[in-house]
Amino acid sequence: MPDKTRYAIVGTGGRHEMYRDAILGEYAARAELTGLCDNNAGRARLSAGRAAELTGVTPPVYADTDFDRMIADTRPDTVIVTSRDSTHDRYIRRAMELGCNVITEKPMTTDAEKCRRVLETQRATGRSLRITFNYRYSPPRTQIKDLLQSGIIGEVLSVDFHWMLDIHHGADYFRRWHRNRENSGSLLVHKATHHFDLVNWWLGTVPQSVYATGRRAFYRPETAGRYGLDKRAERCHGCPEAARCPFFLDMAANPCLKALYLDQEEYDGYHRDQCVFSDRIDIKDSVALTVDYQNGARMSYSLNAFMPWEGYCIVFNGSKGRLEHKTEETVYVNGDGSVPGAVKPEGTWIRVYPHFAAAYEIPVWEAVGGHGGGDDLLLRDLFNPDAAPDPWMRRADHRGGAWSILTGIAANVSLREQRRVTADELVPGLEMPDYPPMPAATDPLPLR
Ligand SMILES: NC(=O)c1ccc[n+]([C@@H]2O[C@H](COP(=O)([O-])OP(=O)(O)OC[C@H]3O[C@@H](n4cnc5c(N)ncnc54)[C@H](O)[C@@H]3O)[C@@H](O)[C@H]2O)c1
To answer: What band does 309 get if pLDDT is binned at 50, 70 and 90?
Structure first.
């Protein structure tokens, strides 16, 4: 029987459930839940109650101000951070200072100063910090890594990457805490950390400089006016336009959302259903970036959050050809019990256009479960690590976490100052993550 690793979780909202249930369920032989911490006492108690339903044991619950006491009382080996993005740095650093390893949800943190401090604490304490990039584990995305690594199109010289968030999932970012940069770092950090991490890892490189343009084009009071939603309130619950508004979110009618958020409002006053057209929103919904990478590649990237379908198109232009990849994801509202990001098999394809030869499609690796099949494989790797080496090196540490947010943080500075921003001016001297070797610019090229 292996020794059990002891885990405490900070942040008991929608996302933590996956980790809690894995520790208490499938990985119970290897893992133990020591405590739960949140600034919302109601949500923390709700989670403890669910844990008791699963195991018969109620884990202790701590307020955010009692985080140190939780560590002292319950002595976890590892702290799992699933709180609001802007609070990650505080818990990551304190957990490491108190002798724990850390697993954190993305984004590692939300701005350059916090990023520097997290890296300093990691260096000073020598503790391990793991960032859970579930997208790397989703089979079609792992397959893209495998193909690029194999040299199928030679070395990648440029990338066109366009991410679509639809009017269901995309709109949800404008209802929740994510709508303010101080909480999430904007969609360029909160959401695009996934996208920029994938590109760093797929290409085996890191960003050098970023130029960004963008605006809030759709989720604005003017759009509500154009729909004729003139009597809209600041939140959906009780809104006079509820019956007419296509963006109305009925938390009272959804048992999961009601239990997790509506019933817990008395503890922190947080409304999960704020109006998507509010002028209190300060993040952008339409952005375009050019990113130059240390290996010489250049990427054109866009993110639009008001699209009729959700997913992405990416094209890699290489020295031996071109690889096109498209994924349509299903629609979901986070926290309502549906499967997030499940991939419709017919909506994902990979096509290769070699130089001097006919184009062909490649069968896509099958994906089952949340986030394109990535969540289950990530959990297996976290809680029951396979001894076999991972040929794609999907585990991400503090370096991968930092590089993944630097593109978005640089883009935020670029939007503000209207100039190209380098990663090095934000976090000087950051080391490269460990990536598998990639095709080199000096490799011979076949003529046929
Ligand atoms: N990898 C993925 O695909 C994925 C998916 C969803 C969420 N996430 C990440 O997981 C994290 C949680 O997101 P969520 O969807 O569960 O949000 P959520 O709003 O449901 O939960 C956030 C929790 O943090 C708590 N919190 C807020 N401030 C706190 C503080 N100062 N101290 C302690 N707790 C605090 C809130 O009360 C809430 O319980 C975020 O960082 C998000 O980016 C990742």
So the answer is: confident
Look up the CATH architecture of domain 5-131: 3-Layer(aba) Sandwich (3.40)
CATH topology of domain 135-218+281-374+395-426: Dihydrodipicolinate Reductase; domain 2 (3.30.360)
What's phi and psi for 372, nearest 5 deg? 60, 30
Segments of 245-342 assigned E as strands: 286-293, 298-307, 310-318, 321-329
Rounded Cα distance, 355 and 320, in Å: 6
Could you count the other beta carbons within 10 Å of the beta carbon of residue 230? Answer: 9
Cα angle 235, 238, 243 (rounded to 5 degrees) comes to 95
Nearest to 309 by CA among 135, 162, 141, 168: 168
Question: Which of 61, 71, 105 for a ligand 1 pocket mutation test, highest count of atoms within 8 Å of Cβ?
Answer: 105
Pairwise CA distance, residues 247 & 244, whole Å: 9
Question: Position 234: which residue type?
Answer: E
Sign (positive/negative) of CA torsion 324, 330, 335, 337?
negative
Does residue 134 contact residue 19 with C-beta atoms inside 8 Å?
no
Identify the band that residue 368 occupies on the pLDDT scale cut at 50, 70 and 90.
confident
Task: Give pLDDT, residue 332.
Answer: 46
Out of 84, 175, 195, 268, give the residue to mutate to test ligand 1, the one with the largest number of ligand atoms within 8 Å of its CB: 84
The CA 97 to ligand 1 mean position distance, Å, reads: 22
In this structure, are strands 78-81 and 61-63 parallel, antiparallel, or unpaired?
unpaired
3-state SS of 172-212 is HCCCCHHHCHHHHCCHHHHCHHHHHHHHHHHHCCCEEEEEE
Q: Which residue is it, tokens 């290769």?
A: 352
Q: Where are the domains of the chain?
A: 5-131, 135-218+281-374+395-426, 221-268
| Residue to substitute in 82, 85, 137, 180 for testing ligand 1 pocket (most ligand atoms within 8 angstroms of CB) | 82
What digits encode the pLDDT tens for the residues 398-444?
999 999 999 999 999 999 999 999 999 999 999 999 999 999 999 99
Helix 192-203 and helix 398-417, axial crossing angle in degrees, nearest 10: 120
State the average pLDDT for the chain: 94
Residues with CB under 6 A from ligand 1: 10-15, 38-40, 43, 64, 82-85, 87, 105-106, 134, 190, 334-335, 371
For the entire predicted model, the pTM comes to 0.96
